[in-house]
């Protein structure tokens, strides 16, 4: 075997250079080679900014032909932002809608995103259909028949009982999440028109659970559904592995985590929407570095028979 003639000084040079090469590689331009440190946002973004600007945004996914995290199953669906399809909402002016949940999936309600553009205006829902809307981005003016109007900012919402005359107008731009369903009438129970904002709602007791819960509608009999706002700190999770008769429509407003639906486990980020059919096993764990917050439709107060 020939003995290497490499001068000892070359070995010494390599030995001296190697740590600095490794260090450079480990630190890279921004931190680490393989997993860059998350960039600190230079200016704080508005509340729910990630819903319309998700970390794994549709623009990043354009380079991956045919890839989507969206899933459609018999008893649940995950609809992620790269598969949203917007089209004009019938009778609304200058507004594009993406229906994320509809009765075609088996639900008794619709959940859609409405992107209101300059000088846009809503139309009324069909006869006997109630509506709930929540502002994710921008602001709108809600007017009702009696000429009262409310300016709804991000985090504000309105419940419009069935056959209640109203309109929503937007002068610049706004994104809303809207729920509609045929009202389940009960004798002598009349729901009221409601306007509110999440931060004004009290935290409710959640025995056995650690997440924070707010309900946006009264829990009384006139209301046949409620909208919950649920907050989890990273590492917190649902204690109950829920299986129940109620349906859900969910929009993740902030954060990241893992949702279990039936026997499938889905990574979730702000902007993702979920349909949960009655009795689908459901469980959530919040991960990442910031709070997870989701908005959840749940039918309540009616006999399932
Ligand atoms: O109230 C609920 O059913 C709620 N905890 N479900 C859920 O978060 N999937
Ligand atoms: Mn549930």
Q: How many distinct helices? A: 3
Class by alpha and beta content: mainly beta
- Whole-number radius of gyration? 25 Å
Q: Which series of helices and strands comes N to C?
A: HHHEEEEEEEEEEEEEEEEEEEE
Q: Share of helix among residues?
A: under 10%
Ligand roster? (2S)-amino(carbamoylamino)ethanoic acid, manganese (II) ion
Q: How many strands in all?
A: 20
The coarse overall form would be: globular
The chain-level mean pLDDT equals 89
What proportion of the residues form beta strands (DSSP E)? Answer: 35-45%
For the termini, the CA-CA separation is: 88 Å
Largest sheet: 10 strands, antiparallel
The unreliable regions are 1-37
Task: Describe the structure using short key phrases.
305 residues, binds manganese (II) ion, binds (2S)-amino(carbamoylamino)ethanoic acid, ten-stranded antiparallel β-sheet, globular, disordered N terminus, 9% helix, seven-stranded antiparallel β-sheet, single chain
Describe what this molecule looks like in 3D.
It is a single chain. The chain is mainly β. The protein has three helices and 20 strands. It has helices spanning about 10-25, 50, 60, and strands at about 70, 75-80, 85-90, 95-100, 110-120, 130-140, 140-145, 150, 155-160, 165-170, 175-180, 195, 210-215, 225-230, 250-255, 255-260, 265-270, 275, 280-285, 290-300. The strands form three sheets. Strands 3, 4, 5, 6, 7, 8, 9, 10, 11 and 12 form a ten-stranded antiparallel sheet that branches. A seven-stranded antiparallel sheet has the order 1-2-18-15-20-14-13. The longest helix has 20 residues, at about 10-25. The radius of gyration is 25 Å and the shape is globular. The N and C termini lie far apart (about 90 Å). Residues about 1-35 have low confidence and may be disordered. The protein binds (2S)-amino(carbamoylamino)ethanoic acid (UGY) and manganese (II) ion. (2S)-amino(carbamoylamino)ethanoic acid (UGY) binds near residues 238, 242 and 282.
